[in-house]
Amino acid sequence: MAKKAPRRTAERILESSLALFNRFGEPNVSTTAIAADLHISAGNLYYHYPAKDEIVNALFARYDEALSGLLHAGADVQDVEDAWFFMHTLFELIWQYRFFYRDLNNLLSCNRRLEEQFPVLLQAKTAAMHDLLQALRRRGALQMEPADAMQPTATSMVVVLTYWLSFEYVRAPRQALEPESAQAALLHGARHVLGLLMPYLEPTQRAHLARLVGAYDQAT
Amino acid sequence: MAKKAPRRTAERILESSLALFNRFGEPNVSTTAIAADLHISAGNLYYHYPAKDEIVNALFARYDEALSGLLHAGADVQDVEDAWFFMHTLFELIWQYRFFYRDLNNLLSCNRRLEEQFPVLLQAKTAAMHDLLQALRRRGALQMEPADAMQPTATSMVVVLTYWLSFEYVRAPRQALEPESAQAALLHGARHVLGLLMPYLEPTQRAHLARLVGAYDQAT
């Protein structure tokens, strides 16, 4: 049997770490546990990642890249159907990397790179929400005065988007972040972020969003 | 000099712990550090609180009691001026116990009592926001269809209320939870929670809230 290339091992370490961090929380997963999960030696793991923070940082780099790619789509949203799809895709990506959100402040206080990069990421999210609002407004779907409501609404959307999974976790610590809760958590989250726009929507669009939300209410 | 009564020491331990937890985060403060801060022996501290979790639980009991007393006032709100004052008072209390919000999920995963009690507290907050919306609606200040918007709006208000300080912390980890940032953090928080009601307010009330918010924007 051919020996596995180092590149492949580094990749497997990231995949296994992500699964374990998501399942148990990053502070509760040691590098020893990751090595054991992969049936490799601690030495082999350290050869690729000399410290757990380097695994966390490598995962953050991937998340950040995927998120940046996605956030650009905020400006292309044409109606509430697009916005609904956009929000779901965003929540799906957050769900894939949910360990960041489960222990965010703890991670920030222990990891200098995250402390620097997460504020930048929140700014990018806020800018994307702002773009989404402007795009909907330009198409006549949204009736919102930019001077009064756009910036605080974009900020509140980011707070709900960022902390929705934490909120679900507090409500049900033992179930909320398990895979079988994914679908409900993502739908609840998207529904609440877009719910903030409901009163500002042009009537046809509002009815359309209510139908999308209604279909979800029946499904959960 | 008279020897201090045990009751007084127990009280001082709670006060010192609260200050240290707020300043450095609960996971970063040991019972040894608390004893050192008070110039008492570790033995004396253990006599009053045999484990750090018991200090955390005693502080939670105080917070829970103060919060429950306050939340009842949600139903008595008559206009946006009352709502603004209510939200400030709520944020001031959250600020006093901000360490819970800084490391909430971490605390929940390590402390069984908090894991049980925090969901109850979130429910009480959601019920209070719902009461506040109903009170404003009864007075004609709010134009909101209960069937469509009241429950999700109350829930989103609780998410913004609960995670506002975490959000400020991510944006500026080294400044956000320091005492000199209190005033700005509380005003920003109250402004964003009540901002969610803006589009639903009766026009005179909306103008009144905009004036209150405007006075704040100039002050920060």
TrEMBL record, chains A, B:
<dbReference type="GO" id="GO:0000976">
    <property type="term" value="F:transcription cis-regulatory region binding"/>
</dbReference>
<protein>
    <submittedName>
        <fullName>TetR family transcriptional regulator</fullName>
    </submittedName>
</protein>
<feature type="domain" description="HTH tetR-type">
    <location>
        <begin position="7"/>
        <end position="67"/>
    </location>
</feature>
<dbReference type="InterPro" id="IPR009057">
    <property type="entry name" value="Homeodomain-like_sf"/>
</dbReference>
<dbReference type="GO" id="GO:0003700">
    <property type="term" value="F:DNA-binding transcription factor activity"/>
</dbReference>
<feature type="DNA-binding region" description="H-T-H motif">
    <location>
        <begin position="30"/>
        <end position="49"/>
    </location>
</feature>
<dbReference type="InterPro" id="IPR050109">
    <property type="entry name" value="HTH-type_TetR-like_transc_reg"/>
</dbReference>
<keyword id="KW-0238">DNA-binding</keyword>
<dbReference type="InterPro" id="IPR001647">
    <property type="entry name" value="HTH_TetR"/>
</dbReference>
<dbReference type="InterPro" id="IPR025722">
    <property type="entry name" value="TetR"/>
</dbReference>
<dbReference type="Pfam" id="PF00440">
    <property type="entry name" value="TetR_N"/>
</dbReference>
<dbReference type="Pfam" id="PF13972">
    <property type="entry name" value="TetR"/>
</dbReference>
